[in-house]
User: Fold UDP-glucose 6-dehydrogenase from Paenibacillus catalpae.
Amino acid sequence: MRTIAMIGTGYVGLVNGTCLAHIGHSVQCCDTNADKIEWLQQGRIPIYEPGLEAMVAENVAAGRLSFTSDMASAIEQSDLLFIAVGTPMAPTGAADLGYIQSVAEFIGRHLTAYKTIVIKSTVPVGTGRMVDSWIRANMQNPQIPFDVVSNPEFLREGSAVADFMKMERCIVGAIRPEAAQLVADCFEPLNTKTYFTTPESAEMIKYAANAFLATKISFINAIANLCERYGADVEDVAEGIGSDSRIGSAFLRAGIGYGGSCFPKDTHALNWMADQAGYNFGLLKEVIQTNEEQKYVLLKKLVQALGDLRGTTIAVLGLSFKPNTDDLRDAPSLALIPALIAAGASVRVYDPVAMSEARKWFGSDVNYGIGVYQTIAGCDACLILTEWREFITLDLEQVRQLLKRPIVVDGRNCYSLASMSGHGIEYHSIGRTAVSAEQTVLSRL
Ligand SMILES: NC(=O)C1=CN([C@@H]2O[C@H](COP(=O)(O)OP(=O)(O)OC[C@H]3O[C@@H](n4cnc5c(N)ncnc54)[C@H](O)[C@@H]3O)[C@@H](O)[C@H]2O)C=CC1
Ligand SMILES: O=C(O)[C@H]1O[C@H](OP(=O)(O)OP(=O)(O)OC[C@H]2O[C@@H](n3ccc(=O)[nH]c3=O)[C@H](O)[C@@H]2O)[C@H](O)[C@@H](O)[C@@H]1O
Assistant:
């Protein structure tokens, strides 16, 4: 059992802190956001993450997990200091290391005995060494030893607790093998495969993993756009290629592009790193560009179906960047909804859990519905942006009756073409428009 200070109690810090407590460690989660800490001390969870609330309560009750704004004493009382603060995108596309630097300097000022400092945040290659120097520059007693270890995080929002508890692999990048082993031992109860490497490789593994997954998504979205032009069905194509074990079926769901707090910023940060090194990562630039364009494909489909959008009311189902989270950071909805409004439409939105988050982003620009059916009633068309369970099990008969015009434009391919047409709904989805051979490029060949 180790004593751990988790510095930064956001999606990653709160889940890691709670799960590390759950596997037996004694964890203090700290944050500069005093409101967040106060909420957590009252047993309230500031984010929506399945399974997290119960796990927090259990570990707080067991005395293994606590929340504090007193970072200095948490640091003093802990063997390992995990840094899990944000690394948002700077205007240049680079990762903004401001929060990391301020934590490193704080640690430096409060270091009174040996500590292992673990970087959980996603940081550009070389950051571990910068953290080392920021700590050193602020130490009152430069003789105190410490290690900086890179231990990137791979959890997904919406399944974060399960991703941690069934961790597929643990990456540990360190200069001193003893420090690497200390960090690996923290995760020992999970029985996961650990890969030991240098800090630079560990930092690169994180960006390469996210960029590769983003590449798969942009690739299948580009194929989807081609499928529409040739009358093929991207769902069949994804299944057909995904069954090749060298390709794999994961991350081949065509849609309206990837969003969230990580793929967009991490692809930009990797591209920035490449540019800094004088390497033109053209492939990655295309992945980013394809994703940008994909966010607007539903607008084009809607205009094709309805014509002029001025004076129309459009229902939007799903605002979060994926199901099972209330996170709207870089969600496709943030790009598409302003575009609908700019085209003259009134927008009525509904999301099962992200409504209060949505109010922060959209304010009074949209109307907020109550439940699916109240939201779509009387609308000219309905868009599906997130594949929440509630939206993939709609009562299609009611949908047809409630919409002014029975048009559904689905950015997540939640339904078969047959089920929608069977209910008399004009259905537009991604990469599988039901066109006859005469309407496709084939007819012109
Ligand atoms: N959200 C995700 O699913 C994943 C995120 N990551 C990476 O983990 C890092 C954290 O991401 P999130 O948890 O999503 O961010 P977040 O924004 O949800 O949380 C960061 C927290 O750090 C706190 N903070 C900022 N400065 C601080 C300081 N000086 N001292 C103490 N606390 C401070 C903030 O108040 C905030 O509560 C990022 O680098 C991200 O790229 C990695 C894998 C998954
Ligand atoms: O670094 C991070 O923060 C995390 O980023 C992603 O996790 P997350 O963003 O939570 O969610 P994903 O499930 O990866 O989905 C990201 C986006 O891609 C989209 N997506 C995903 C898969 C797919 O086949 N198609 C597709 O469009 C989703 O709708 C969503 O908008 C990675 O999957 C995690 O491994 C990583 O730790």
